[in-house]
Design goal:
Strand content: under 5%
CATH architecture of the largest domain: Up-down Bundle
CATH topology of the largest domain: Son of sevenless (SoS) protein, Chain S, domain 1
Shape: elongated
Structural class: mainly alpha
Number of domains: 2
Largest sheet: none
CATH class of the largest domain: Mainly Alpha
Distance between the termini: 43 Å
Radius of gyration: 18 Å
């Protein structure tokens, strides 16, 4: 599915309906792979995005945001691919209550930080597009949620891979927060802004984080 031609052939071969149906498989691993394939097929592929819209699968992917962690992560990936430069998909996403369900995915979870990282990446990319609708991000408190991710003290990590995941998640989150602030989303919440400024001060002392990102965020906040 990484080939645009192969992804486009899903419609020719009538494979979209059975693929989408696997999102309801009793096996979590199958649901995970179905979301993964869908996300890869529609990534940077307007034709495949149109086919997915035709089968109204955005709602099905939104429903998977409440699934098991591994499935949820790939559903976020698939939604990020589908929403990219596709206003019609954003409309279906909003109608399905997508923003509130996506917001729930950045809450602290025991399984890891992958979902938080994917949500941050999705939000940052979405806000980089012209004409992005912002009300869902404002109403569901995405800025507050991301600030809480950055506030969390780093645990005693024994494995380097875990430390790397936490580092990448923080950096993706900083980028998302910077985009939200630059669009003035959530900035009227004085308590969240106070917490963000305190968090930025701590991030300046975090040698594991790209300080250029921190400085950019600080500059954006100061420009308000």
């Amino acid at each position: 599915m990484e080939s645009i031609d192969n992804a486009s052939n899903l419609e020719v071969l009538k494979l979209w309906p059975p693929l989408i149906a696997e999102l309801s498989s009793p096996e979590a691993q199958i649901r995970r792979y179905a979301a993964w394939v869908i996300g890869t097929a529609v990534q940077n592929n307007p034709k495949a995005q149109g086919h997915l819209l035709q089968y109204k699968a955005v709602k099905r992917l939104v429903e998977k945001l409440g699934d098991e962690y591994a499935v949820r992560s790939k559903a976020i990936y698939a939604l990020g691919s589908q929403l990219s430069h596709c206003p019609a998909a954003v409309k279906q996403f909003e109608e399905a209550g997508g923003w509130s369900r996506l917001r729930a995915c950045i809450r602290d979870v025991e399984e890891g930080t992958e979902c938080q990282r994917r949500v941050a990446f999705l939000v940052a990319n979405y806000l980089a597009e012209d004409g992005a609708l912002m009300s869902g991000l404002e109403e569901n408190g995405f800025l507050k949620g991301f600030v809480q991710v950055l506030q969390k003290q780093e645990p005693d990590v024994r494995e380097k891979v875990q430390a790397l995941e936490i580092k990448v998640t923080k950096m993706k989150t900083i980028k998302a927060v910077n985009m939200l602030i630059s669009k003035n989303i959530g900035t009227r919440d004085k308590e969240t802004m106070r917490e963000l400024r305190e968090t930025i001060a701590r991030l300046r002392d975090d040698s594991s984080i790209d300080q250029e990102l921190v400085m950019t965020l600080e500059s954006t906040v100061q420009s308000l």
